[in-house]
Amino acid sequence: MMPIMGIVSRHNEYDADKMGSELGGSAGAIELANALRKTGK
């Protein structure tokens, strides 16, 4: 059950990131991308 919940959770996170970048305009998308790169390291 846990792998399925992980997939669903990841899908929801991607959707939230997409919506956040759209709400912030092009500058918001760049800032979001930079923040995600920093947290991924």
Provide keyphrases for this structure.
single chain; 41 residues; mainly alpha; 2 helices
Architecture overview:
The chain has 41 residues and is mainly alpha-helical. It has two helices and no strands. It has helices at residues 2-23, 25-40. Helix 1 (2-23) runs antiparallel to helix 2. It is elongated, with a radius of gyration of 12 Å. The N and C termini lie far apart (28 Å). The mean pLDDT is 84.
Shape designation: elongated
Low-confidence stretches: none
* Residue-averaged pLDDT: 84
Major β-sheet, in short? Answer: none
Percentage of residues in strands: under 5%
What is the helix content?
A: over 70%
Radius of gyration equals: 12 Å
- Whole-Å distance between the termini? 28 Å
Tell me the layout of helices and strands.
Layout: H1 2-23, H2 25-40
Quick description:
The chain has 41 residues and is mainly α.
